[in-house]
Batch of 3 targets.
Target 1
Amino acid sequence: MNLPIVSRVSTQSVDPADRIEFWEEHNRQALVGLTCSSYSQDGLLATETNVELGDLRLAEIAGNEHVIERTPRTCQTLPKDSIFVTLLTAGCGVFFHEGGCVTLRTGDLILYDTRRPYLFGFPSPMRQLLVDIPREVFAAQCAPGEVSAPILLGKGSAAEGAQASALEAVLADWVTGQGGEDSVSTQATVLDLVRTLAAPRLGGSAPPAVLSQLAVAKDYIARHLADPGLSSGRVAEAIGVSARHLSRIFQPTGVSPSRYILEQRLGKARQVLADPSSRHLTIAEIAHCWGFASQAHFTRVFRSRFGRTPGETRPFIN
């Protein structure tokens, strides 16, 4: 997939004395106006990739110990009318706002308004995925209410946790270019997941839509793919729907839930087989690793899917 990358920058090659100014200027143009300071003696070491997703912009940001701040003055002089959804994928952070502070750990998801001042501190190396949602898009497709204070999402229930995990998977796939879906359906999935998570906290109701349910189901399958007990029935039970409804959820993919599971297992097994570094693994071990009950069954379905046996897929080494 060819990603519409807006920018990709790093402070690594910038003189340490100029890194803060460089980072602030880059973010002022690419994302949001802010001030920055570093905790590290090495200065700010950070990277950022900005990618377009329809009306949205995604950013993957990694860095060492640092603080970013959007002061009241910055909000006035460099206005930004968006809702940010930030998922911390590594490290920890403290988010200070007018009403107090929120502590975040790896896997936490926070939603906040860029019109309001905030300070986000990272006392250790960090990585985050950020979704920039224009306010009019958020109001129309997620929740119409004001985001008067930051909202920590994904911790209220097991269902919330599953939705936050699915959102992380969708964002990570798109940012790294591994997502196979088009930008229209991916944007709709992201907004559906944000709506399902945020609307109840903002005084609305948001029954999960098919796109968000599909994302949750796919994420559950990806995380349990190696389990030989994984089945469509188990997926339906895990995401809280009937087997019949799960089949309806998967209709846009063109395959049944069971076939989707099989296709994912075969794809993973094929990647391992084609990797020269996996030559020490037997075909039976690879089959078992990806949930196949027997080598014979694995060989049969593999040949049916790819037109060649697992052994023929392995690279020839002299």
Target 2
Amino acid sequence: MNSLHRLTVYALALGVFLTATSELVVSGILRVLAEDFSISIALAGQLVTAYSLSFAIGTPVLVSLTSRLERNKVLIASLVIYALRAGLSVAATSFALLLAARVILGVSSGVFLVTSFGIAAKLVPAERVGSAIGTIILGFSTALILGVPIGIAITEWLGWQAIFALLGAAGLVVAAVIARLLPSIAGDEAVPLSKQWQTLGSVIVIAGLMFSFLRESGNSILLTFLTPFMTDVLGLGASRIASVMLALGIVGAIGSRLGGFGVDRWGEKRVILLGAFVHIAALSVLPLAAGSVPLGLGLIAIVILAMFVSGPAIQTYFIRQAPHSASIAISFNISFIHLGLAAGAGLGGVMAESTATTLYNPWGASIVVALGLAAILAGLAQDRRRRHAAGVAAKQ
């Protein structure tokens, strides 16, 4: 990867940092928004739901419609629209307008993320795709570490409008930088839509989508209720939560880099399987660490590490399994991820309410992730049989 392409990948990661911060910061300022618009916390929480649904539904539709357009133009347009959406948030005088802004954010951020993955795969040599994807995912994990805490601090200092104004202005600057760095990149090949859908309907791709959905569902069962798990089950003091979350965010960032390196060195399938086995094992043991802060936090760190290590591998998996429909395949994968997050949060809530504790949430998470592992193992086995049969037929 030459220095210009490396710089471009980092610029894409910075764009992901901005869009991810806009997505994640809302959860941290829900109470402020609820008070400002004189609504309940539950209603304010619909801002998160609106984002997830528009991301999950709108992204694959727009990616499909724009798949033949030059990738650099689609990327820059999505980031500019994101910046304009920030202006709409600042000017929102009602909750309905802010909700509409979140819908636009979900779609524009989704298109930007998917297009960034596709561009990175085209910019770098095949043996460096994993590292490039890992760098872009690093933008998301950095949003957790720095973007959200800084956004909350700015909100407390200047008001919630200020954070969206700053993010919008930064988005325009990053769009200008990317426009300067990025060469013209052709859209996907003119493959008939029927063939694209046939690729998406293959066993190996469906298995990957099911793995993403179940993996993220499992993650959400635990992570949505991670704070009460750490305080009520492990016995961690509430004053230490912020520093622990910062440390876990750093672990996630390290995992993204390790995952990208692992894909380039050992291949995406091995990284996915190894990450899933470690993920399930750590989740299964976690409830047994009840009352032990060091052991419990160590196991949670392993869960976070395994989760982020698998991230670059999963995206690379779809790029290589559906090379003629990579953008569409990635967009569907990200949609399944968001649907999985929503499903897991609901299931985790049911578990916590029915048992009056979050102690058993990791076990529920481990079962769901194990189902995802079973799905992708079955898909890989079926693909091997198909390849073997094709090879035998070719020799005859």
Target 3
Amino acid sequence: MSEALDVDVAVCGAGPVGLALAAFLVRRGVAGERIVLVDGKSLGQAISDPRSIALSWGSVQLLEEVGAWPLAATPIHQIHVSRRGQLGRSLMDRHEHGLPALGYVTRYGAVVDALARAAERAGVAVLRPARVASFDEQGEGVELRLDDGRTVKARVAVQAEGGVFGQQDDKSRRRDYEQTALIARVTVSQPAVHRAFERFTDEGPLALLPQDDGDGHQYALVWCMRPERAASVLELGDDGFLAQLGEAFGARLGRFTAVSPRVAFPLGLNAEARASARTVAIGNAAQTLHPVAGQGLNLGLRDAAVLARELGRGVDSSAIGKFMDARAQDRTLTIGVTDAMARAFIGGGPLQPLLGLGLAALDVVKPARMLLADLMMYGRR
């Protein structure tokens, strides 16, 4: 067996959050050769991932800092929020914030590719494909044994591989929303250029994010509904699926004319601020969120930036404690707001008209709208 690899920081998971952490660590003074990432997928598999993701303006600034921006992405200039079957809506606009965009829509694989290049330029080693079989936390560090027989000794180990809800160990704060998200790409006949939509229905939110492939008619769809209905909708042919989607969303974008193959996954909240003297979880490994408002990856990138800042001041156990303190407010607020939004608009009942009026009030009361948009773009600062 080869000699153990000795590093300062071992990062388990080379997705966007893990890769961003490595790049930030080098920016904060940790030598690239003193960092290692471990991931179960090949880089080719990760880069080919076609899933669409929304990056907030704050996340774009973080990617730019480590040389992972610009990349192929569609800007969001406006976000239209509404409640199906109720009066009231709210419209957030980039001009209110003096920004070129509120955020951007891109492919998961494109973000991984850009961050992997940044980590490579920084001299960070990535062990692929390999998985951590066991952790052994000791007084001055952590020993990681990989499934291929290799061993890594690190002063600090970071868990940045979270998986999806339903395939995770239960954390202290867990809620099954009893929803399934249907993911696809759709084509519309009358696009609203650079406008994203968040439409709340009785069964869950329906998001359409502009993702331009050249003609401006393409949107990324995230449609949340009850699991039994999701199973039924998934069995429909393209025409039947598009008809159901049109009924749920309405005619703001004209007709839905085409749809890609669909995938589905269960939704839930699974969060816990996990840390020990030498280990810490960030991103999806610390908090798996409902996709409403698209905050999961953005929250994880903020985790990575702050953890790198603290470890850059000294790779020791005190840095983990300082990170946990620094991230507590942003994590708590973002998790709370996302959880409330995921649950508040579901179902019927007498409160639904009031929630519709709340959206209308949000559109009129500029300070409240600005505050919400600021939270979605930057988190709790």
